Amino acid sequence: MTRxxxxxxIVIVGATxxxxxxxxxxxxxxxxxxxxLLGRDVPRLERVAADLKARSPDSSLQTxxxxxxxxxxIQAWAARAYGAGPVDIVLIAHGTLPDQPQCQAxxxxxxxxxxxxxxxxxxxxEAFAGRMQQADHGTLIIIGSVAGDRGRKSNYxxxxxxxLVTRYAQGLQHRLAxxxxxxxxxxxxxxDTPMTAHLKEAGTGLAKVxxxxxxxxxxxxKGSRTVYAPGKWGLIMMIIRHLPFSVFKKLNI
Length: 253
Hints:
- The protein contains ten helices and seven strands.
- It has a single domain (8-248), classed as Rossmann fold (3-Layer(aba) Sandwich).
- A seven-stranded parallel beta sheet has the order 3-2-1-4-5-6-7, sandwiched between helices.
- Helices cover 50% and strands 15% of the residues.
- The N and C termini lie far apart (44 Å).
- By secondary structure, it is an alpha/beta fold.
- The protein is globular, with a radius of gyration of 18 Å.
- Strand 1 (8-13), helix 1 (18-29) and strand 2 (33-39) form a beta-alpha-beta unit.
- The mean pLDDT is 94.
- Keywords: Oxidoreductase.
- This is SDR family NAD(P)-dependent oxidoreductase.
- Belongs to the short-chain dehydrogenases/reductases (SDR) family.
- InterPro entries: NAD(P)-bd_dom_sf, SDR_fam.
- It holds the Pfam family adh_short.
């Protein structure tokens, strides 16, 4: 990742996710940027980069394939990103939406779901957090989920992974509170992306990905510690978190 004068330096982990792609578009609307896009699917990464380049010809866009489950690879990419100096924004956006019944029946599926949705984002955040702290500069955005606020029978393996992300982000915010580094935990509700296509087919109301991305970018710019996207989910989840178990156990959610 080369240094470009007067450009924001942005690293997006999981850049092929719909939310990440739209966040990138939002940032490029404000001016050219020097972006490193990390992902697992190289052809999709290249398509995302080509679209962003068409929208912002003066931007510098680099793509790279990373092993999201390898601590060594994660550490190496954080080091490479900082090779040309401090990074302004790191967005950690990757994840999958596992099938809960499959996770219950197959421990390998549970292991993969927990690793990619919980452990991997945390390792990426930790790899970048130390460098941000040393530079005393930057905003680290971690995408969790409203599913992490309370375990529910419909998706508790996924929710457990996102609960890990929530507790980690809170601890990291505490650690960096006296610094100039900002840690933003994002908790999207169900969003209209390829990952939730089956929910859309089932008639579930989904937020527009463009609106969720703008809420993330706006919240990060304001320095918010937690961003529910859309904002209504903050109230919804507060109610769900505080329901007595005698009531909660009767809900089919």
